[in-house]
Structures are given as structure tokens and as C-alpha cells.
Design brief:
Elements lengths: L5 H5 L7 H15 L7 H14 L2 H12 L2 E2 L14 E2 L5 H9 L11 H4 L16 E7 L1 H6 L1 E8 L6 E8 L8 E4 L15 E7 L5 E4 L2 E9 H6 L1 E6 L5 E6 L8 E4 L16 E8 L6 H13 L6 H7 L2
Parallel strand pairs: 3-7, 9-13
Antiparallel strand pairs: 1-2, 4-5, 6-7, 8-9, 10-11, 12-13
Length: 317
């Protein structure tokens, strides 16, 4: 099709909306992509057309060129080079482009290398790597702690196709951690390699345990009696084992105990684990029966300790 322009390549009209241009590109890219057994030259042609028409500024400048009778980029390498451009008059457009770049005026100082891929028209065929794609997966506390396999399905923006990949969640995966799969991202142009797929893990909290990097934290409720008298309490660990915690008499609210190596595997330091931190939460009864109330009132009467010395000192000033 001699003298065809980018609109002809995508099979759309000059006044086509961006959505129409995008749909046309996706259909043709899926048809001609080399990885799907398509025609590489056609894929390059379609990609080049979409690169210009999908950008409002590039499209506006391109339309201006068409108004002057030129069809920049119409050669597509099929006739032996890109230094010349198909026109309806005998004009060497490369000379005009050089003049525009050199400051001789023309079209508002627009650098046509943004259409043709570089400072020289021959660079338009240079392979370009595809962009990275990003997605997030939610991972349960147990899967992040122990490791797991997950199937992730994602969409390729340029073609609209969906692809799936089996993802290995490493033991000790952290919230916000990133897994990179090379060559699984957006398709490259002009035969360039694909970008990467970057998966961010979002680790969900457990009803009891919470992750803090490789460390694991948990709250341990105890009664006022256990806090005052002391206690020995069996505490579950996130790996399914149990450990016994000795709560000293007089333990206060918020006291934290540390169990070394009781946390998750450290993904940054192979062979090491985080710690398990157990924080005491003293539970005050919200209701008392008659005997409990009488006993506590007697204890209050017997208690001669001063709990508010600083408050009383300031109040008396």
C-alpha cells in the first residue's frame, strides 16, 4: 500500500478517538507479535504507528506533517531506508527535519526524533526493551511465614492479553517485599526484550500474630491477679511450637518479653530468624460478683501504698 500513513497502518480514520486507536493496536499487536508466531516487520510497523498516534503531542505534529503533504515514517524500512519519506511532491523530508532541529523554524521547534526514535531516522528500528509491569498479591500470615506457591494472573497493557505465572513466596516474606520475574513484563518494540514483572507482597495480619520484618509480635492478656502475684503461662509460637513464659510478680501493663529465634526466617540473612516479642496486656474485670467485690474492698483498705505522689504534690501547690 504505497504512501500509507500511520492511520492506514492501524486501520482507523484520521479523527479516531484514543480508545479506538488503542483497540486497533491491541488487535494487530496480538496478531503480529513475534512471540506469537507473527510477522516481526508488521509488528514493528504497528508499534511505530501506535507510538505516535497514542501521544497527543506527537499526533498533533504528525497531523501537521500530513497537511503539508508528507507521510513521515511511511517507509517502514520496506524500500531500503528511512532517510527519505513518502510524499506527494519530490521533497527530501530528512533535510527539512535537520533544518527544524538546527533552529531554522518550521513546526515550533518540535524534535521529530521523538517520532522516529532518536536523532537519526535510522535509530527508529533500534530494539527497545519493554517496560516493567507491577502487581500486588495478598499473602496470609502463615504462607508468608512458611513459604508457599501461588498462581498470579496479570494483564499485558499493550495487547490486552492475560498471562499467568507460578510465584514462589519465600519463607519469611515481608510486607512490601518485591519479587522480580525477568522477561515476564511488557513486550519490547523493534525486537527488544520484554520487561520484568515485579510482584509486591502484602502480608496479612493473623488474629494473634503481627509481622515486623522478620520479627513477630503478639499481645498476651493476663489478669490483674496474675500481674500482681506472678504466673507461668504457656505461649504459642508462630511455627506451631509452644514456649513457657514466666511472668514475675508485679508485672506492669506493656511489659515486653523477647524470645530469640522465635520469629520468621530472615529473607535478607539466610539461616537466621527474627525474634518473638510478647507484650503483656493486663485485663481489669468489668464486672464483679459480691464475694469478689468484698475481697477487693478489703484489699484496698489494707493497701497503704501511695500511687499518685507526683499528682498529689502538684495538686497541693
Amino acid at each position: 500500500m504505497p504512501g500509507k500513513n500511520f492511520y492506514d497502518v492501524l486501520g482507523v480514520k484520521r479523527d479516531a478517538a484514543q480508545d479506538e486507536i488503542k483497540r486497533a493496536f491491541r488487535k494487530l499487536a496480538a496478531k503480529y507479535h513475534p512471540d506469537a508466531g507473527g510477522d516481526e516487520a508488521k509488528f514493528k510497523e504497528v508499534s511505530e504507528a501506535y507510538n505516535t498516534l497514542s501521544d497527543e503531542n506527537k499526533r498533533r505534529e504528525y497531523d501537521q506533517m500530513l497537511m503539508f503533504g508528507g507521510i513521515p515514517g511511511a517507509d517502514f524500512g520496506g524500500s531500503g531506508g528511512r532517510g527519505r519519506y513518502t510524499t506527494n511532491v519530490d521533497v527530501d523530508w530528512s533535510q527539512i527535519f535537520n533544518n527544524v532541529r538546527g533552529g531554522d523554524g518550521g513546526f515550533g521547534g518540535f524534535d521529530f526524533s521523538t517520532i522516529f526514535g532518536g536523532s537519526g531516522a535510522g535509530q527508529a528500528s533500534r530494539p527497545n526493551r519493554g517496560g516493567d509491569l507491577n502487581t500486588t498479591i495478598e499473602v496470609s500470615f502463615n504462607d508468608a511465614f512458611n513459604g508457599a506457591m501461588r498462581k498470579v494472573t496479570y494483564r499485558i497493557p499493550s495487547t490486552g492479553e492475560t498471562q499467568s505465572i507460578n510465584v514462589k513466596i519465600p519463607a519469611g516474606a515481608v510486607d512490601g517485599g518485591k519479587l522480580r520475574y525477568r522477561g515476564q513484563g511488557e513486550y519490547g518494540s523493534n525486537g527488544g526484550e520484554r520487561g520484568d514483572l515485579v510482584i509486591t507482597t502484602k502480608v496479612l495480619d493473623d488474629a494473634l500474630f503481627k509481622r515486623d520484618g522478620a520479627d513477630v509480635r503478639m499481645d498476651l492478656p493476663i489478669s490483674v491477679y496474675e500481674a500482681a502475684l506472678g504466673a507461668s503461662i504457656e505461649v504459642p509460637k508462630p511455627d506451631g511450637e509452644k514456649v513457657r513464659l514466666k511472668v514475675p510478680a508485679g508485672t506492669q501493663e506493656g511489659k515486653t518479653f523477647r524470645f530469640r529465634d522465635g520469629g520468621a526466617p530472615d529473607v535478607r540473612k539466610k539461616g537466621r530468624r527474627g525474634a518473638l516479642y510478647v507484650t503483656i496486656r493486663v485485663q481489669v474485670p468489668t464486672s464483679l460478683n459480691r464475694e469478689e467485690r468484698a475481697a477487693l474492698e478489703q484489699l484496698r483498705t489494707m493497701d497503704r501504698r501511695s500511687y499518685r505522689k507526683d499528682v498529689e504534690r502538684h495538686a497541693s501547690q
